[in-house]
Every structure is written in C-alpha cells, then in structure tokens.
Amino acid sequence: MGYSRGLAAVQALDHDRGPDALLVPAGILEVDFDQLSVIFGTSRDNSDFMADCLELGWANRGGCYPHIEKLVIDLDNAPEINSSRTQFMNRLVQFVDRTKLSVELAYYPPYHSKYNPIERCWGILENHWNGTLLSTVETAIRWAETMRWRGVAPLVHRLDKTYESGVKLTKKAFRPIAERLQRSVSLGKWSLTIQPETG
Fold first, then answer.
1. What angle do CA 122, 124, 125 make, to 5 degrees?
2. 3 found inside a domain
3. Which residues, in sequence order, are CB contacts of 45 under 8 Å at separation 6+?
C-alpha cells in the first residue's frame, strides 16, 4: 500500500501488463564515502550488464582513488554474477588486465542479504518513491536522483544497451580464465581474487 503525493488520485491500471519500457536496477555502494551509484539498464539483468555497471562505476569514480591497487567487491548471490558464471569471470579478468587492479570478490551466502549495505539502499529508494506511479523511465530516474543515502545524493546513470541472453564460454575458452581465478582455500566459491597479468 502506498500514498499519493498529489491532491488528486493518479489513475492507474490494477495490473502492469505490456509495459512500455523496462528498467533493470543495479547499484554500487562505496562504503567509505557513502557514495551510491544507481545504474538503470533498459534490456536485461545478465553478466554483461553487471560487468558494464562495474566498468561504468570505475570510469566515473576511479579518479577518486588514485592510490588504490586492489578492489574488494562484496556481491550478493545472484546467478548472473556467480563465481562459476563464465562470461562474468571473463569480463572481470578483462577489467583487471585493463585497469591493472587486483580484484577480490567476496560473496554473501544465501539468506544473508540483511548484512549487505546495498540492500538497505534499495529499501531507502523504495520508501522514497512509495506511492509514486513510475509511468515513465524519466520519472523513475528523477525519483532515484532525489533520494539520499546517509545524506549523500546518488549518482544515477542509464545504460541503453541491448544484452543477449545465454552468453557463455566453452570449457576450452574458459580454461585460461579459470586459471586466473585464485579461489580461497577455506571459502571456495565464496571468495576469489584476480591479479592483473604482468609483463
């Protein structure tokens, strides 16, 4: 149940059938600075979309961290960013080699999302636009821009790109990628590090 912010009730359908547009949200939270980046895709939520979000986030914010040599990225347990997803690992290896950053991926186990700060950001956004009829892409983006996470305005981006489903590497193609993944001995699939190639 939501509350309208206008004087007159907004007319809406009781079921959202045949939407005119699709928005797929992704978020990056820089916990040291409380800086949230919200990226809206207009295609589908898959490994390439998530990798492009990381690329976009680093392109926009990497300059704030000139001293950084290693990124530690906390991730939820979504299938498109799973440590066994060949295309996602492929894209991360490419990111590491291009940026020369070491990247450590730390995954939250299932049912532990309450410990993930980004989930609280989504709760703030949902409460912020509660009762608003998100009838256009622009409306959703404007509302996201006016929310605050711990007093800080988010950086909101839109990724207008079509993503194909089912993109994956063959076992042979993935073998050199898999060799680059330094998996934790004790945590296995829940933690891995990728080092940039030297030389």
1. 65
2. no
3. 24, 26, 78, 80
The number of folded domains in the chain is 1
| Domain assignment of residue 91, given as a range | 24-194
Strand partners, 183: 192
Q: 61 or 15, which is more confident?
A: 61
Measuring CA to CA, which residue among 143, 142, 112, 111 is closest to residue 127? 143
In this prediction, residues 11-27 reach a mean pLDDT of 75
Tell me the percentage of the chain whose pLDDT exceeds 90: 76
* Backbone φ/ψ region at 150: left (φ over 0), alpha (ψ -120 to 50), beta: left
Judge whether 19 lies within some domain: no
Nearest to 158, CA basis, from 40, 19, 74, 49: 40
Cβ atoms of 81 and 75 closer than 8 Å: yes
Hunting for tokens 């703030």 — which residue is that? 124
